[in-house]
Amino acid sequence: MRGGGKLNGRMIELEDNIRLALNLLPIELWNTLYMVIVSTIFAVIVGLPMGIILVITEKGHIKEQPTINRILGTIVNVGRSFPFVILMVAIIPFTRWLVGTSLGTTASIVPLSIAAAPFVARVVESSLKEIQKGVIEAAVSMGSNTWQIITKVMLPEAMSSIVLGITLTFVNLIGYSAMAGTIGGGGLGKIAIQYGYQRYNTFIMVCTIIVLIILVQAVQAIGNYIARKINKN
Predict the structure, then answer these.
(1) Is 136 exposed, middle or buried (CB count within 10 Å of its CB: 0-12, 13-18, 19+)?
(2) Residue of 230, 55, 74, 231 whose CA lies nearest to 146
(3) Looking at the whole model, is its pTM more than 0.90?
(4) CATH 1.10.3720.10 fits domain 2-232
């Protein structure tokens, strides 16, 4: 009887955990996607021009400006040097001023975007540096101006690599968004911390990890597919 009672108790606990996971995971998965997608967009908006400027202002390039290159490079390096958890805490006043709160999914977008922008800048810089100098020299010799060289030569040539870099940024932001749960951010990290770790609920923790792994694999597969399509074109 005791064995049967324990078994029934475990079955009831499992059913409760499944019900809890089904209620929480879809909502927080959406919150994670919301945070990461919006953060990636802002990071690309800021990081893409920074990466381009880092390349074209370096020595021997089309707009050589060593001072600008050095200053911008230092800013990017400083931005990349902050551990994300420390960054989240350090900019809480700025986040609260910008969005009215330092808690929740929308507030988490601020530190996520700030953390990702320098990374995107370096990704874009690395991708653009892979372009053979002869291609750019040919565009210059044909009378193309700086804007034309950037938009019609450099970006199209490096687009496949840039897409892979943005995919990597997206994947990193998924991990960062999970860490945001430690200071009140929403998303899957909230479930892992509040319902998994703090309540010693291994089932919820495992379910959250599985969803994160599936999400990362799906994003990487989509990014690889887009990059291959661009290469073929």
Answers:
(1) buried
(2) 55
(3) no
(4) yes
